[in-house]
TrEMBL record:
Protein name per Swiss-Prot or TrEMBL: ABC-2 type transport system ATP-binding protein
Record-linked SUPFAM superfamilies: P-loop containing nucleoside triphosphate hydrolases
Entry's Gene Ontology molecular function annotations: ATP binding; ATP hydrolysis activity
GO annotation terms (biological process): response to antibiotic
ABC transporter domain location: 8-235
Annotated SMART domains: AAA (SM00382)
Keywords, sorted A to Z: Antibiotic resistance, ATP-binding, Nucleotide-binding, Transport
Subcellular location field: Cell membrane
Gene Ontology cellular-component annotations: plasma membrane
Pfam families (alphabetical): ABC_tran, DrrA1-3_C
Cross-referenced InterPro entries: AAA+_ATPase, ABC_transporter-like_ATP-bd, ABC_transporter-like_CS, ABC_transporter_ATP-binding, DrrA1/2-like_C, P-loop_NTPase
Family indicated by similarity: Belongs to the ABC transporter superfamily.
């Protein structure tokens, strides 16, 4: 079953529970062939957003569209979803379960069986197809859950914490699968607390804080926008040597090593010239903040 891949658009959705505002006008789009990392602390609204995107939870206002169409039952069938609280039948055999889920999403039995065999092989669970799910290790249950999201050849992937509980080998397999899906034009949205993974895998990142979208942008741009850290080792430099340099803030000095924060107006060559004017410079290191550094700043 093939579908034209269009963008997944989450358009100003709000959700309240009594007096609690869970989502406050959240908007983000996931483009065909893009991997978007969805980041936020527990309770920030990630899972609620994903459930609304999937149509299993209704928004109070706003709309979710896939390829321009509101998400109804037909559209929902084309979505591959991996919930954070894993939703497998524990007593059912792995192979039967995957085939059943593929049929539920519209595949004929023979095609469903072929897809089950293909994904089981790809995800390293082919030897487990006749085992009941609850006989599997947590990592293998994760792999089955991913197979369940992929077995019907979805037009879009929405994965809630797909990497939690995976061993490093499974993380690599999962990463390869997501890249492969994106290369085939599928929009991929996944949430994760593992920000190094988001930084490595994603084209763009969306950071949600207390039900509001705080930052959405290309990973590299978002990191650059947080400013650059510069570590200068100038043992002879007097205190205040960098004061007054445009776009430069002194973050700390210890043992002749000064840490500076540079905004986009700063010129690192001017900083180097000012440091050299004080005597020898033994170290001059530029560091773009990691997504983890940036996330701490945004959430704080």
């Amino acid at each position: 079953m093939t579908h034209g891949n269009g963008a997944l658009e989450i358009d100003t959705i709000t959700k309240r529970y009594g007096d609690t505002v869970a989502l406050d006008g959240v908007s983000v789009d996931v483009r065909p062939g893009e991997i978007l990392g969805f980041v936020g602390s527990n309770g920030a609204g990630k899972t609620t957003t994903m459930r609304i995107a999937l149509g299993v939870l209704a928004a109070d206002s706003g709309q979710v569209r896939l390829d321009g169409r509101p998400v109804d039952l037909d559209v929902r069938r084309t979505i591959g979803y991996m919930p954070e609280e894993r939703g497998l039948y524990p007593k059912m055999k792995v192979g039967e379960q995957l085939t059943y889920l593929a049929e539920l999403h519209g595949l004929r039995r023979a095609a469903a069986r072929r897809a089950t065999a293909r994904w089981a092989e790809r995800l390293g669970i082919a030897a487990r197809l006749t085992d009941p799910v609850d006989a599997l290790s947590l990592g293998n249950q994760q792999r089955v859950q991913l197979a369940a999201a992929l077995v019907h050849d979805p037009a879009v992937l929405v994965l809630d914490e797909p990497f939690s509980g995976l061993d490093p080998v499974a993380v690599d397999v999962m990463s390869d699968v997501l890249r492969e899906k994106a290369r085939a034009g599928v929009p991929v949205l996944f949430s994760s607390h593992q920000l190094d993974l988001v930084q490595r895998l994603c084209d763009r990142v969306a950071i949600i804080v207390a039900g509001r979208m705080r930052t959405v942008g290309a990973v590299a741009e978002v990191r650059r926008g947080a400013g650059v850290r510069l570590e200068v080792h100038a043992p002879a430099a007097p205190r205040g040597w960098a004061d007054g340099l445009p776009g430069v803030t002194v973050d700390g000095t210890l043992d002749g090593r000064t840490t500076l924060l540079l905004d986009r107006h700063a010129n690192d060559q001017d900083v180097l010239a000012a440091a050299l004017a004080t005597g020898p410079v033994h170290g001059f290191t530029l560091r773009t903040p990691s997504l983890t550094d940036l996330y701490r700043e945004v959430v704080a």
